[in-house]
Amino acid sequence: MKMTNTTTMTTISRLSNAKPVRRKLRALLASVSALVTWALAHPAVAQTFEKIEGKTTEDVPAVPFVGLAYGFIWIAVLAYVVSLARNLSKTRAELDELRQKVERATNAGPRR
Amino acid sequence: MAGFLVIPSMILRAPIEPVMGFVQKIFYFHVPCAIMLFLSTFTCAGGSLAFLFKGSETGDRLAAACGELGILFGACVLVTGPLWGRKAWGVYWQWDARLTSSLLLFLVLIGYLIARRYGGPAGRKLAAAFGLFAALNVPLVYKSVDLWRTVHPKTSVVPSLDPSMKPAFWGSFLLITVVWGVLLTLRVRLESLRATLAELEGRTEDLLEDLR
């Protein structure tokens, strides 16, 4: 009995909500139709260009951009040269250290 | 060293391009840097091929050096380009074919170095594959402005350059090529020294073991 009541209530609520949904659908359909009609009536809207009078243009000075670009290149190259020079001297120092280690060991001779 | 003073003065004395104005002067070092990026990538691929198919250690060192140089000159291209674009187009970046493919090439070269450094025992071979893939990307980057509609100037700009602008452009190109050559020599030397050091360390350990 309780179950039958719940089902009835749901059906009633569905029926009462049906009208607003239909109304919304109708409104949406009307809006879409109006939009399509308007778009068909103005087919060239997106394809034409109009001359704009008195257009304000952005006046950005060019010198800082050229300076930044030129500066970046030479700073990047310089940084790379410094890093290469450091690595080269480090590797050479390690090679020298190794050479000295071998010399010391050779001069000391075998321990056995 | 004189080139570092002569070339900027040649660039400054070159006529100002009527459409873009003074900012077009970025062209004189942006384009040579892009050419060095391509040259580095092709040399990296050549070295990678020699390493993959002939086991050439010299090829591998050359590829490693060029991978790094590609990143250096790629960074120069990707920084100077947007600075030019900000003035010429009003924005720093556009996801158009030339800019996107250049960024992709740069990322592949970064992938090359990452694979080489962190790829483990097979890292050098994996990196070599990245090097080959990067070289395949170069024609796409170069032809992208002709194949797709982009905001970037076409490939016909350099051949049709005004004769009065040519000395500054070729002078700048020569200077950047010399810098590239010097950096490549130094980087290959570093890689050779590292290889010698690694080899000697192994031998020294054996020698010291024998002497004990």
Number of strands of chain B: 0
Question: Poorly predicted ranges of chain A (pLDDT <50, ≥5 residues)?
Answer: none
Strand content of chain A: under 5%
Please report which band the strand proportion of chain B falls in: under 5%, 5-15%, 15-25%, 25-35%, 35-45% or over 45%: under 5%
Distinct helical segment count of chain B: 6
Shape label of chain B: elongated
Between the first and last Cα atoms of chain B, what is the distance in angstroms?
53 Å
Give me the secondary-structure category of chain A. mainly alpha
N-to-C order of helices and strands of chain A: HH
Summarize the structure.
The complex is a heterodimer of chains A (112) and B (212). Helices cover 77% and strands 0% of the residues of chain A. Chain A is built from 2 helices and no strands.
Descriptive overview:
The complex is a heterodimer of chains A (about 110) and B (about 210). Helix content of chain A is about 75%, strand content about 0%. Chain A is built from 2 helices and no strands. Chain A has helices at about 1-40, 65-110. The longest helix of chain A has about 45 residues, at about 65-110. The relative contact order of chain A is 0.03. The model of chain B has no long low-confidence stretch (mean pLDDT about 90). Chain B is elongated. The longest helix of chain B is centred in the C-terminal third of the chain and has 46 residues, at about 165-210. Chain B has about 210 residues and is mainly alpha-helical.
